[in-house]
Every structure is written in structure tokens, then in C-alpha cells.
Amino acid sequence: MDPSPPCLSFIGIVDFSQEAKWIYMTPSVTDLLGYEPNELIGKPSLPLVHPDEYPRVKQLHYDTIQLDKAACLVYLRMRHKDPYKGYILCGISRTVVHNVLVGSVSFAQPGAKALQNASTATEITVLTPNATNFEFRRWNDPSPIALDPMPPSMNSPASPTPSSPTWVPSSPGSSRSDSQDRSPTPDRDPGHLNFDNLTFQSYRTAFILNRFSVNCTIEYCTNDFFLRTMDAIGRPFFDFVIKKDEDVVRSWIDCVKGWGVNERGQPSDGGFGFGKFTLIPKGRDSTERVPEPSPTRHRHGSNSISRARPTRAHVSRAERLVEQHRVDQSSRESPMPMLVDAIFSAHSDGLMVILRRATP
Predict the structure, then answer these.
(1) CATH superfamily of 9-139+198-284+335-357
(2) Region Disordered: which residues (predicted)?
(3) Domain spans of the chain?
(4) What dihedral angle (degrees, nearest 10) is formed by the CA atoms of 277, 271, 102, 51?
(5) I want to staple 268 with a disulfide (CB 3.0 to 4.6 A). Which of 100, 171, 262, 263 is the partner?
């Protein structure tokens, strides 16, 4: 029997305070760290970090917010509720979403899943000394070995650099290069950090969707920038995707779901997917309707009257019409369809979609 725990993950949201207080988390936190969500909501998250890594984690928290980062990954140790289990090596993803940090916490284990997570992240930071095997390098990352000076006669034309006009950053939504993003956070005294001076960042919205439903029902959203929370919660996510883009967005979500399966076949995390589609804030009806059966004709008893009781389908249809009328009325002043950039990720008990308005 494999004694190592499976790769599980939970979605978490923290605020911009220096303690990074928990605002929201999904129930899988219990499987990973042993805590119930109500034990952590409103409490600081940084005290769960290993004491040796706390100063750098606090600095990293500050830098992530200040630099408005997205789809970043860090490996560090977090305390389990059971003292006999000590500290768990975790991979933590994070994205700045206007006034909160949204991400996930997963059990870190070397292998194909760690490679998948790292290959799709825009930045990787490894804080735990014995976790260097989680480092991931790309061809354009700087060499860790200092190069000897080359004779002038052997110098070749310089390759494009981040400062040259031909440089195109590869990380979505970021103007920084991979090599800059992947540089480790320096060891600095976090006592000088002033979190009160941090301002709200990019206009992004994070949606948490039901991973196990066909239509990916919206369960939580962080703000009302793109969709009004009262209109969005409980509705299929695809209600807000323009019809011509629905199939491709479904394929993207199916793809990240496929990535997000651990070695035991259980739902887990699996890296980031990036896409662009047209969002319709006023919504539409994306669910397929089953045609209602025709009324049954009675062969006998022409004088008899049949009074059919309202079925569940009829009630649901009536409620849907009322709801659609209300949405139509309230959305007359809603913004027109807009092109958005999206970051998709799958986790043990939910899907996460982070949106921002795309540049033309």
C-alpha cells in the first residue's frame, strides 16, 4: 500500500492584509490539512507556514500583490492540524484578483503532475530547501552557472532580451519575462513592509464553478465587475458565454478537468489553461430543453375531464420563465458582450475561472 497521501487540492481566497486572512475555502482543506473550513475562515493563513519559511512567504505575499501577478506557483510547508503529521509540503497557486488573492493549495509530490503544474505556471518559487526537485526550467531561463567571458571574436549577435523591441513575454497577462518571474524572492526582513499602502489591482473576477455538473454552475464569485453576483450564483457558467464560443470553452474546461486527476484517479489540480472568449453579462439560456410530451387523448369516456397535476418539469419551466423575465428586465442596462482573457484551473472540489477584459 502506498503510504504517501494522494494529490488533493482545495481552493482558497485570502485578503491583502499582512496576515493574509482566509476569506473563502472549499471543503477539501479538511482532507489536506485536517482543518474544517469554519476553523480557518477569518483567521490568518501565514501562521500555518513553517517558521523557517515565514519571512520569505510574507515577502512573497507582498510582492505578489504589489506586482499584480497571476498564475504563479510556490512550494512551501504548511502545518497540519494533527501534530503527528507535522508540516505538509504544498504547492500553492495564486493570482491577484483586484482586492484579494485567489488560488489553491495542493499536496506536492514529484512526478508528472508536478511537471504539468510547473509547465503551465507563469512563475515558480521553491522555498523549502529539500524541494529543489520541483524546480522547473525553460529554454529562455538564465543559466544557473555563471558563464566564462567569451572572446570578442566569438561573440554572436545578441538574442532578444526583455528590454529589446522584439521581445514578446510568454506569460498571459504579464509584461515580465519568464526569467524575471522565476527569480527567487530575496531574503529580506519583512518587518519593513507596509501593507496599508497596497492598492487595488487589475480588474479581474474569479468564479468558482461546480466541477461535477455538466453546466458548471457558478457557486461563488469575488466581485461584480463582469456579472452581478445575485444574477450569477446558481446559474450555469455557459449562460454567460456567447453561443459561438460555448463549444470551445467547454473543451477548455474538459481539458483542465482531464489534467486535474491524481494518481488514484481522484479529482485534483492540474495546472493552468489560458483562453479568450466573448462574455455576455446579461446572460442567456444555455441549457438544452427536452420537448414536452403531447397531451394524452382519452379513448373512452368523452364526458370525463382529466385534470393533470403540475409536474416538476412544468414547475421548473415556469420558474425558469419568471427568472428569465427578471434577468431580462434587470439586464437592459447591462454592458454589451465583451472579449475577456480567462485562466482556467481544476481542483479537487471545484473549477476556477479568472477573467479580465481582453485588450483589442
Answers:
(1) PAS domain (3.30.450.20)
(2) 145-194, 283-333
(3) 9-139+198-284+335-357
(4) -170
(5) 262
